[in-house]
């Protein structure tokens, strides 16, 4: 393995792993020889060899785990960086899109939510003014105010329809 991609402080373990993998066949033969010798010389040597093999296996497992952990950390950092860059670009794109849609709607004369709100406020003002002009009694003034009230109701109906259409289009507030 290339030592550039390993975690710091594992050079000895890297050398050990290279030696083990380079001479696997010889280790197998040595293991067979040790097995035969252990059978002849007793169980004590055999147990020692098993213990050494277990220790070697544990060191190799730890080295592999450290390498995988280091790679996993590096990949996680790369993924987080890419996600942050992507999120920033998406937000910029959304802002540009919203601005362009708003400009296009203004160009073709579609009222904004603010425009509709102003119209509704003005209608309410006119309704209050007409209400002040309409006397409680007296048919002459009442009949003169009736056309004005019907015009206010028509304008109000038009404003409400415009507001519904604008909310259906989800026009952003300008």
Brief write-up:
Residues 165-174 have a biased composition (Basic and acidic residues). This protein has helices at residues 11-22, 24-41, 43-107, 113-133, 139-169.
Describe this entry's structure for a reader.
The structure is a single chain. The chain has helices at residues 11-22, 24-41, 43-107, 113-133, 139-169. It is mainly alpha-helical and 174 residues long. The protein folds into 2 domains: 9-82, no CATH class; 111-169. The longest helix has 65 residues, at 43-107. The protein is rod-shaped and about 125 Å long. The mean pLDDT is 77.
Structure characteristics:
174 residues; mainly alpha; 2 domains
Write the layout of secondary structure elements.
Elements: H1 11-22, H2 24-41, H3 43-107, H4 113-133, H5 139-169
